[in-house]
C-alpha cells in the first residue's frame, strides 16, 4: 500500500494507495487481537470473549440496519492494561481515528499529539520521542506500563510493551524535549 515510484520528471517519491486505511485497520486489528490476551486483565478478556460468542450465536455479526452494536465489535479497554500510550504520530487524522477507536482520552494522546506538533511525522521513531516527552514531564512512575504502537509500510503494525523499573524523576540530558518541555502541552486549536 506504500510504494516508491518515479514521477514524470524522474523524481523518486512515495505513492500511497487508496486502500491504506483499510489495510492499516486490518494490521491494527491483528496486532491488538494478538496483544490483548497477553496484557488485558482476565475480566476484560472474558467480556471480549462473551461478546464474540453472543454475536456469533445470536446473529450480531450480520448486518442489521437498526442495530449499531452489530456493526462495531467490542473494543477492549486497554486503559486497564496500560498507564501510558505512545501511538505512532503519522498525522492528526490517524491520531484522531485511533483515539476514537481505542476510546483513549486526550491525556492518553498528549505525548503523541505534542510529538506531531513539535517534530512532525518522524515515522515510527515518533514513539521514542513520545516516551521522551513523558519522561521529560516526569509522568512515568515505577511500575507504570507503556504501550508503544507503531506502523510501517508494507503494511506493518508493531507493539512494544514496557514496565518502568523506577520513577523517572530527572530525564537524561540527551532528552530532545528538555529545551522546550515547559511550553507543552501546547494548544492545537
From TrEMBL:
GO biological process, one term: fatty acid biosynthetic process
InterPro entries membership: 3-ktacl-CoA_syn, ACP_syn_III_C, FAE1_typ3_polyketide_synth, Thiolase-like
Pathway: Lipid metabolism; fatty acid biosynthesis
Gene Ontology cellular component list: membrane
Enzyme class: transferase
Reaction equation(s) it catalyzes: a very-long-chain acyl-CoA + malonyl-CoA + H(+) = a very-long-chain 3-oxoacyl-CoA + CO2 + CoA
GO molecular function: fatty acid elongase activity
Domain FAE, residue spans: 1-56
All residue ranges annotated as the Beta-ketoacyl-[acyl-carrier-protein] synthase III C-terminal domain in the record: 83-163
Domain of life: Eukaryota
Listed EC numbers: 2.3.1.199
Keyword annotations from UniProtKB, A to Z: Acyltransferase, Transferase
Similarity comment: family membership: Belongs to the thiolase-like superfamily. Chalcone/stilbene synthases family.
Entry protein name: very-long-chain 3-oxoacyl-CoA synthase
Amino acid at each position: 500500500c506504500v510504494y516508491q515510484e518515479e514521477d514524470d520528471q524522474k523524481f523518486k517519491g512515495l505513492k500511497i494507495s487508496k486502500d491504506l486505511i483499510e489495510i492499516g485497520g486490518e494490521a491494527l486489528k491483528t496486532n491488538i487481537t494478538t496483544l490483548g490476551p497477553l496484557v488485558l486483565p482476565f475480566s476484560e478478556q472474558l467480556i471480549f470473549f462473551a461478546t464474540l460468542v453472543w454475536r456469533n450465536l445470536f446473529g450480531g455479526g450480520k448486518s442489521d440496519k437498526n442495530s449499531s452494536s452489530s456493526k462495531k465489535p467490542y473494543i477492549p479497554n486497554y486503559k486497564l492494561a496500560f498507564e501510558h500510550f505512545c501511538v505512532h504520530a503519522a498525522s492528526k487524522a490517524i491520531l484522531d481515528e485511533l483515539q476514537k477507536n481505542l476510546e483513549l482520552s486526550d491525556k492518553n494522546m498528549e505525548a503523541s499529539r505534542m510529538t506531531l506538533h513539535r517534530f512532525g511525522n518522524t515515522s515510527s521513531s515518533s514513539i521514542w520521542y513520545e516516551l521522551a516527552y513523558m519522561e521529560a514531564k516526569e509522568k512515568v512512575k515505577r511500575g507504570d506500563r507503556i504501550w508503544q504502537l507503531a506502523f510501517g509500510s508494507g503494511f506493518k503494525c508493531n507493539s512494544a510493551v514496557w514496565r518502568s523499573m523506577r520513577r523517572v524523576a530527572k530525564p537524561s540530558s540527551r532528552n530532545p524535549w528538555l529545551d522546550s518541555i515547559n511550553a507543552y502541552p501546547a494548544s492545537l486549536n
